[in-house]
Amino acid sequence: MNFVIIGGDAAGMSAASRAKRKNKELNVIVFEKTYDVSYSACGMPYNIADPARDMDELIVRRAEVFRQKQGIDLKVGHEVKKIDPKAKKIYGTSIQGEFEQPFDKLLIATGARPKSLNIPGTDLDGVFSLKSLEHGRQIKKYIKEKSVKQAVIIGMGYIALEMCEALRALDIEVSMIKPNPRFLPKMEQELAERIKQVVLSHGVQLYAGSNVNGIERKGEKLSVLSDDFSLDGDMVLIAVGVAPNSELAQDAGLELGANNAISVDRYFRTSNEDIYAAGDCADTYNVITGKKIYHPLALLANRGGWMVADNIVGKEKEFKGIVATSVFKVFELQVASTGLNEKQAQDAGFDPVSVTINSRSRAHAHPGSKTISVHMVADKKTGQLLGTQMVGEEGVAHRINSIAVALHANMSVDEYFGCDLAYAPPFSPVWDPTLTAANVLKKKL
Amino acid sequence: MNFVIIGGDAAGMSAASRAKRKNKELNVIVFEKTYDVSYSACGMPYNIADPARDMDELIVRRAEVFRQKQGIDLKVGHEVKKIDPKAKKIYGTSIQGEFEQPFDKLLIATGARPKSLNIPGTDLDGVFSLKSLEHGRQIKKYIKEKSVKQAVIIGMGYIALEMCEALRALDIEVSMIKPNPRFLPKMEQELAERIKQVVLSHGVQLYAGSNVNGIERKGEKLSVLSDDFSLDGDMVLIAVGVAPNSELAQDAGLELGANNAISVDRYFRTSNEDIYAAGDCADTYNVITGKKIYHPLALLANRGGWMVADNIVGKEKEFKGIVATSVFKVFELQVASTGLNEKQAQDAGFDPVSVTINSRSRAHAHPGSKTISVHMVADKKTGQLLGTQMVGEEGVAHRINSIAVALHANMSVDEYFGCDLAYAPPFSPVWDPTLTAANVLKKKL
Prior knowledge:
Two copies of one chain form a homodimer.
Chain A: E1 2-6, H1 10-22, E2 27-32, H2 44-48, H3 63-69, E3 73-76, E4 79-84, E5 89-94, E6 97-102, E7 105-108, E8 112-114, E9 127-128, H4 133-145, E10 150-154, H5 158-169, E11 173-178, H6 189-201, E12 205-208, E13 214-218, E14 221-225, E15 230-233, E16 235-238, E17 242-244, H7 247-251, E18 275-277, E19 284-285, E20 292-293, H8 298-313, E21 326-330, E22 333-339, H9 342-347, E23 352-360, E24 371-379, E25 385-392, H10 399-408, H11 413-417, H12 433-442
Parallel strand pairs in A: 1-2, 1-7, 2-3, 7-18, 9-16, 10-11, 10-16, 11-12
Antiparallel strand pairs in A: 4-5, 5-6, 8-17, 13-14, 14-15, 19-20, 21-22, 22-25, 23-24, 24-25
């Protein structure tokens, strides 16, 4: 049986490895457009921040290992151009010319691409996006060769902020610009404001609420043009989110779902039962709402790859979905969220109430304690816990997971408040900050 | 109505504050034997470690505040000697002489005391235990005044280890001794061994498996006598666990439960419906086994105090119980556990299987990553998750909480594995170490 996979990063290679491990007889054939497979894309900002590190450190497993030790037929530099679901074949091109490959089962794991901006100048030398390892290499090389001293970042999402921190670590002046006047609009305003103040304290210029009309070369510099001012830099990074690479699937007549990602069922099957999709090109289910969402993060991609492999070689396993947990670091802050914010809760038909509290990362009088801000959302009608956002200098990144588990378990705020969480003075107040938030929120229910 | 409370620390003062806040008409009368109320006992080792800090920093709220701002009739230096449940009166002594006090509802919150050793010499000058704030003051004063350079700790539990770290921070030589040859016997051996090696690497002498026959004065030093050797020190700390102060309750004819603590129901009521008990003097329910356990930790004491107050002033709230979550720090390690270990699982009638895995605290290739060891226990018959222990230099203390919540939710290992946990390179591998453990454990089910 031919198990053919389009795309050789998280979802694709997870599926390939697991399928081959579970069934050695399977022909597992992977087509990857670039020459990089299986790398930690999320690690790129931290790698760029450190000139001593090689970008290729982020490669988790090299192509030769997949080929020689795992027996996977991995073809890099092979771009798939067309899927024919009826003929059960894919068609593409490589430097050797055109190729075609019949499949019994197909996995589309084409990932996502940085959203492009429809403005002039995005093709100028020194204008970058960051998604593939090759992007990372180019940015790192450019910073070194051009001795970049000043950069403009278009966008203020988590990749933009991680790159902002990386560039500041290299002592590069950074200004950031985006049209939406709200900083981190999905976050509760008090928490977003705290993050913004930390970013500003690191000498970053923020222009939220400013249009981006184009990029021009201006002598040695690039200039990002807004309505009545412009921002100069030696380089420009466009980081305004990602879009799923779903065109190949769409052209093959497969259904698209949330955010125009490939629509998949709870078995990661597309609208064609022999074709699966996983990773950043596919949508998924939200456990809390039961509805489809697009959540292009690494754990879901890895998990999706594994589940596709399990479903192909063994008995089918149903995927319950995600609760949209995420965390990022920006300067000294850890920023985490899981579940729904108030607006998402309202849109999903809940009657949300919320609280925002400040607690501490360590016990009363324990040295080094920092403020942890917790925003918690619940449904007024049922008392169901719906989501939590958290910001702090320590103790946030893993603390969010206890809420994520509670959301998977469909817990009420009262049930969460009853949980026996860990306490020791160096790590927490007696009442964990999430318990304190739950206690305050209970009073509003 | 008179709500009388015996004991003015975590459970007692939590109950007093909350009862008075919820019903201003209530007479809340607290009798505390010592002159300290409402302090963070758990913070004492960290305070002792820093000569610049005053022990009284650990006082969370002073007696005057309870009296003047909260209207609580708080009597310190008042030792209750007898409870008469029929007459609904308590009797005791203070420096003013004898007193008696009628009650409508009574809360016994007498806490626990350090277990004593039945050996000669425990009353010698320089031999200490650590439980009350006064103990902490005495130890700190003694270390300073006697310029302690060498100490012997009898016991190797978490307080013994926290004190070991504190004394090493003061550059005091430490040796530790106990009869049980197994270091941290409730922990899985590989994890216990890792902790032991770290303790040894800090120059601590460990004598596990050695009897402690007595303590003698030997010139300027104290000498802890074992069978064929002795350990010298300027001071000796006895830290061999705590015992509940349940004698007052027992003398009043109230039932005792787990570990001879006062037996309470799910409303923190003793066998007399007008008498409650909470904190380190009372037992509680284990959510996983449904059985009684003794778990003298701060969160349960605070929670118990609140719940007693709620039950007295409002509608009764049932307490589901605990999962026995705990965490402590010892040198660079965080050590956490929740739920049952294999032996406890077996004793409770489960058919336990377990795995121990090593994972990382940060993503592939992320600098500063440390090893996280995870030991996870499940029931072979049902797949139910039963418990987890974890050791690592970072990312352990809060990570245990996601397992604790899963235990409260009665999740299977498979359900836990399906949880959407947070990932970013500075904080975790893509697969959280607890997910990796669950994945490996699934294969044994």
